[in-house]
Write a structure and sequence with these properties.
Order of helices and strands: HEHEEEHEEHHEHHEHE
Structural class: alpha+beta
Oligomer: single chain
Helix content: 25-40%
Largest sheet: 7 strands, mixed
Number of helices: 8
Distance between the termini: 11 Å
Shape: globular
Strand content: 15-25%
Number of strands: 9
Length: about 180
């Protein structure tokens, strides 16, 4: 696998993971990690401009990066209200852009792709009791649990799909060696 930073559109849109997790409205971050990742919202803007299509035709995840095990992470941070269908659209649109940039097949992400939805404590408190229990159970072990039907992306688009509270994401990501 080529390093993601070998692609100019990715190389030109690097930032700290913390910056991709910012909630401008509430003036807070869902991650304080300062490691460098790809700002995929900026990639989407540049990509859409390059193909002369209005930028609002597509949506994107907040960050993309790889690790030393050649896993590719697509991360979406959510602090406010959102709908599962919009998160799925962000995943699908991001996959299309990513694949066009790197000239890959969906099987690459199916074998090595990890989608993570990171939610704030405030958003977590609004989840159903069932979703809270399942997320708590998943955070203690090796199991996955994805809210809003995002589990449908597992095996179809990504190898793994996770939904994590911000603190659990921090613990999870600290174990990864980020490479872009």
């Amino acid at each position: 696998m080529r390093k993601l930073s070998s692609y100019s559109v990715f190389k030109n849109h690097k930032t700290q993971l913390k910056n991709t997790s910012s909630d401008i409205i509430n003036k807070e971050y869902l991650s304080d990690d300062t490691r460098i990742v790809i700002d995929f919202d900026a990639v989407k803007e540049a990509y859409m401009s390059d193909i002369s299509v209005p930028t609002d035709f597509a949506s994107s995840v907040d960050a993309v990066f790889s690790d030393d095990e050649e896993k590719i992470y697509f991360v979406e941070f959510k602090n406010g209200d959102f709908e599962g269908i919009k998160i799925k659209k962000k995943a699908y649109d991001s996959i299309l852009i990513y694949q066009d940039v790197v000239s890959s097949k969906i099987s690459e992400l199916r074998d090595n792709g990890i989608f993570i939805l990171v939610i704030s404590d405030e958003k977590y408190e609004k989840l159903s009791a069932r979703d809270k229990r399942a997320m708590a159970f998943a955070s203690r072990g090796k199991t996955d649990y994805a809210i809003y039907g995002l589990n449908k992306l597992r095996g179809y688009c990504f190898k793994e799909v996770h939904c994590k509270k911000a603190l659990n994401f921090k613990k999870y990501i600290e174990q990864k060696r980020i490479i872009i």
